[in-house]
Structure formats: C-alpha cells, structure tokens
Specification:
- A hairpin with a 5-residue loop joins strand 7 and strand 8.
- The chain is globular and about 50 Å long.
- 31% of the residues lie in helices and 16% in strands.
- It contains eight helices and eight strands.
- The protein has 290 residues and is α+β, with helices and mostly antiparallel strands.
- The structure holds coenzyme A.
- The site of coenzyme A has 23 residues, from helix 2, strand 4, helix 4 and helix 5.
Amino acid sequence: MGSTKEIHSISESKLISGGSAGPTKDLSRNSELPGSYRISDILPHGPDDPNPLIRPNIETTMVWADHPSVAGHIYHLESTPRRPDLSRGDNFLLYYNGAINDQGRETDPGDSTFFKAVNKQGEMLSNCRVLWKGVEFVKRPRTAYWERLIVSPEFQGRQIGTAMGIYVLDLIFYRSEAYNGFPATEVRGSTYVDKLASGVGEGHVGFDRNELFLRSFGFEKDGNTMDMEDGRTIQPWKLTLSKYEAARPTVVKSLEEDQPERKEHSESTWPGFRENLRAKDPTYAKNFTT
Ligand SMILES: CC(C)(COP(=O)(O)OP(=O)(O)OC[C@H]1O[C@@H](n2cnc3c(N)ncnc32)[C@H](O)[C@@H]1OP(=O)(O)O)[C@@H](O)C(=O)NCCC(=O)NCCS
C-alpha cells in the first residue's frame, strides 16, 4: 500500500517549489459545470492500490492549503522543523510520498494510504491520508491515524468531506489488513483549536466546523487539548468501530441531497463489509448486532 510510483522524485520537484500561487488560483474554473461538486469516484479502490495522488494534485493541494478556509486548520508542511532546508514544494512532495507526517516526523511510506475524490471530469475534489502505524501515538494495537483531510475550498459544505469520511473509515474498519491481516478497530485524529483556527477574518471558518464534522461520524474527544512545540494547540479525537457503526446510518443519510450516488454506494456496500468482518474477526462476531 502507499506506493509512490506516480509521484515524481524530490529532485524533480523544483518546478513547484516556492509555492507562489495565490490562494484563489484555479478555484473558480469548475464552478460553472453542473454537478461538478459531485464525487464520481474515490481512489484507491483497495488498500493495496498505488497512491492516487499525482504531481498536479499536489500542486493543487498547495493552493488549497493557502486558502483561509483551510490554512488555520492544517499543519503547514513547509514550516516543518525537521527539514527547514527544503523548499515548500519539496516538503509537500515528501509528505505526499509518505516520507514525513504532518508534524514533519519521518514515516515509512509503506505505512500510509492516500485518498483522492474526483468528479466526473476527473478533477480532484478532496484528499487525505491514513497512517496505519509507525508513529508513536498509533503504536497501540489496531489503531489508524486519519490526517490532513482537505476539501477543495470551492466546494466545501457539499458533503464531499462526509462522503470521503465514510469511504475512508469503511476502508479502515472493514477492508484494510494492516494489523496482521485485520483492519483497525480504532481511529485517531486531531484538530487545531487555537486562535489561528478560530475563524476570525475574511473567509476563515471556525474550528467548531471540524468538531461538528468529526462528531457526525461518532468521534469523541480523546482527553484534553494539547499545546504543541510550535505554539499551536490541538484537540485529539478518537473513534471506535462500535461508535462508528452507531453513527453511520445517520451520516450516510446526510449525503442524500448533494451526493446521492455516494449515499447509495455507502448503503449498498455496508452489509457486505460487515459480513466479511464478522466471518473473519471473532471479537467482532461476538458483539455483532443487526
Ligand atoms: C472540514 C472539511 C473536511 C469538511 O468537509 P465539507 O465537505 O466542507 O463538509 P460537509 O459538507 O461534508 O459537512 C459535514 C458537516 O460538517 C459541519 N460543517 C461543514 N461546514 C461547516 C461550516 N462552515 N460551519 C459549521 N459546520 C460545518 C456540519 O456539521 C456539516 O453537516 P451538515 O451539512 O449536516 O450541517 C472541509 O470543510 C475542509 O476541507 N476544511 C479545511 C481543512 C480542515 O479543516 N481539515 C480538517 C478536518 S477535521
């Protein structure tokens, strides 16, 4: 999983270094196409498929990262303390190759899966990463870490993040084999909850959005907020499989208006996912309820 085949090497990356693209570049080009906010596909289809993010996707993500609706809520890869010598583009490539996490710490590319949602025109609407293990706080058994979910600033609030979340969490909880052949039973994540993420300023969105968003899947606060080395403050979150199963029918229903095809897909795939896990995992089978 997490193959980097499609991503150019760091030494080739000079073209996108510097990151001079302004926050609104390219953000209006899709808005006149009807339904261009609808997800037509989410990649990878399977946990072992290659990394779906190609270089133009990383360039687009660099533009998204500067947008006021995104900027205060994600780690700024170019400010990683580990590699201050590298350009912005090179730091982005390192991250989207799976070589560093969003705190700049080294990770094994084999421990990551990157996800990408596209519309009918093949244009990227959202991307994110799952770390299966290999960082200190996910060394617990069968715990995955969900990181850096970004929806195109042009299309936020259209249930794209929700549809991505359901797909990614289904893969984490039912389909991956990262833990000695078994999927994860718990997911962790974190959100920024400080002044920079407070939503003050034109185009900014407050961190209560992310809290509502995570709670819709059944996430709960995992302890108190934490002050980080870089001066920022985060709130850790966790989600267990049983909380996800309780929340899933309602969150899937919320796709009805803007992502009806994803709703149908999410509803039709779930019984099979549950049945497969039941056949495979005795602990799940023991607690299984319909
Ligand atoms: C957070 C993010 C991933 C959500 O994706 P999205 O496609 O915009 O959100 P959805 O349309 O799926 O909304 C899901 C829920 O989130 C909450 N939400 C979304 N936008 C919101 C806003 N502007 N204000 C308050 N709540 C909001 C709501 O509870 C919403 O449910 P509802 O539509 O039933 O009210 C997206 O806005 C984003 O990329 N933000 C910037 C990056 C970021 O913050 N990443 C961290 C994510 S934890």
